[in-house]
Structure formats: C-alpha cells, structure tokens
C-alpha cells in the first residue's frame, strides 16, 4: 500500500487542491478509520458525555421552584456520545478500517462512510449541545466523522 500512496502523492502535487487530494489518498489506508475509532474509544476517558445545566435567570423553574422536587433547578444535558454509541460506532469504524487493511478498499470505504454518516445522524443534537455549552471533544468527533464520510464516500461512490 505505501507504494500506491507515494504514486498518488506524486500525481497530485501539481494540483491546486493538494491538501484535499493528499487526504483523499489516505483512504487507501485504514488510518483515518482507525483514528476515528480510537478517538471514539477514548471518549469516556477524555470528556463527560453529560453535564449539569442550570436553567437561565428567567426560566420558570428558577422563578417558581418546586418544594417537592429539589432537582428542579438543575438537569442533565447530553453533550457527547453515550457509552453504547461509543462502543457501536467505534467498533464499526475499526471493522471498516480492517476491511481496508485486508485489501478490500471499496467495500471498506463504503462501510466506513455509512457508519460515519449514521454517527452524524445519531449524535447531531449532542454536538449542537456541545457547541452551546462550550465542549470541544464532541465537536472534534463530529469533524472526524464528517471527514471520514466525505473522503471514504468519494472513494466508494466514484471508485477511484
């Protein structure tokens, strides 16, 4: 595989989209899929998936607190992937990378693209909450999923 990558890099050095083409050539390797998979697997260690969000100054729960429910002043908000999501999508991305490592680049690219897109669909709201509450790690995971979906998707759809 390294010879293929070297040939592709030499072929794309003269083009205007050098960085994109260089990233695209890495889809011949399992490294982008494995990087996303490993970043998902370390997610529970790096960042909390839920945070305590206190309501705003003029919210009804703050103006009229319930005496029977002391937790009415705070609630948990999910800002990252759940542990089930981490295991499922991390394993799927690792499996797609293994398919590419086993010289099945087209099917591995399609599998990785599909599961990266499913990750975006299932964790999109969490990423929006992460941006709202200033959390960086879920946003980085979303960037990894988008880049895998775009780069491996191009490899799968146009079969170059």
From TrEMBL:
GO cellular component: mitochondrion
A Pfam cross-reference name: Aim19
Domain of life: Eukaryota
InterPro entries registered for this protein in UniProt: AIM19 (IPR019419)
Name of the protein in its database record: Aim19 protein
Taxonomic source organism: Saccharomycopsis crataegensis
